[in-house]
Design a protein that fits this description.
The chain is about 35% helix and about 30% strand. It has eight helices and nine strands.
């Protein structure tokens, strides 16, 4: 699998953006120091995800020192869901927790090792296929991959992953 260019998130006034690591290291070292929840909270593209993480009571777990791989849906990914579906999921803490933890894999998996079946914290399996700039997680497209935070490798995705029934 072709390795994606290493990326980091640099907090800016308008949010965080993905930039090459060398630029990120010159601009700010805080991205490497911040956990996945702190980084996502600084980026307006993840306000729905952060809100749902807090609602499910997962913020502390995802902010810890445990190393994780996170497939992070953007606000646009959540907007693809029917409003009634999103409302139903948000109102059911068990269902919400199941869906959110289906986006999390134990360990920090780099792009050159992500291909294949990955067992999620939820207990289900996601299938990662492709290489380079054409990586998919189940049916979701990775729009930016290999972003590093203090405790996670993050892959931004364009759809919400739903665990099998």
């Amino acid at each position: 699998m072709k390795r994606l260019a290493p990326l980091a998130l640099v907090p800016l006034v308008a949010g965080a953006v993905a930039v090459p690591v060398a630029t990120a290291q010159r601009a700010s070292s805080s991205a490497a120091d911040d956990d996945i929840v702190a980084i996502a909270a600084k980026d307006p593209r993840f306000s729905t995800l952060v809100s749902l993480i807090k609602k499910a009571g997962l913020a502390d777990e995802l902010s810890g020192t445990t190393k994780l791989t996170v497939f992070a849906p953007t606000n646009k990914a959540f907007a693809k869901l029917p409003k009634s579906t999103l409302a139903k999921v948000a109102a059911d803490k068990d269902l919400l927790t199941s869906i959110l933890t289906y986006h999390v894999v134990p360990g920090q998996i780099l792009p050159d090792a992500i291909d294949g079946d990955q067992t999620t914290v939820q207990g289900g399996t996601v299938t990662v296929t492709g290489s380079g700039d054409n990586i998919k997680v189940n049916d979701a497209n990775v729009i930016c991959g290999g972003v590093h935070t203090a405790n996670a490798t993050v892959y931004l995705i364009d759809s919400v992953l739903m665990p099998p029934a």
